[in-house]
Amino acid sequence: MDLSQLDFVAVLLAAMSSFMLGGVWYSPWLFQRAWLEGCGLTELDLKATNPKWVFGGGFVLSLFIAFGLSLFLGPHPHLGVAVGVGFAVGLCWVSSALGMSYIYEQRPLKLFLINSGYHILQFTLMGLIFGLWP
């Protein structure tokens, strides 16, 4: 696929969906407390970070991820294929890579499940957006 076939609006929407999913996934409503515990962080640590750097950097990386998945799927992917590929990328590539690192780093299984679950949903949601996009 050449870049002229890339739908930049769909890429932006997919990146925004990833960013919003992260906001909910790592919020106090879902996994913030367990995630902080697994990372060895406190709420004070979160408050000490620069939100422009954290959220700005996170969004730029979400754009990069959406761009790459869009290139991988090609123009106008079938909905089932796009969702399936997104799920497979999240499960087989991202989660497996995280899992290898977490094993060697001796990080908690709970942290792996939280982060891996986010990435599986992230890529699946992006696939859904690319599959539904006209």
TrEMBL record:
Keywords: Membrane, Transmembrane, Transmembrane helix. This is DUF1761 domain-containing protein. InterPro entries: DUF1761. It comes from the Bacteria. It comes from Pseudoalteromonas neustonica. The chain crosses the membrane at residues 6-26, 53-73, 79-104, 111-133. The lineage of its organism: Bacteria, Pseudomonadati, Pseudomonadota, Gammaproteobacteria, Alteromonadales.
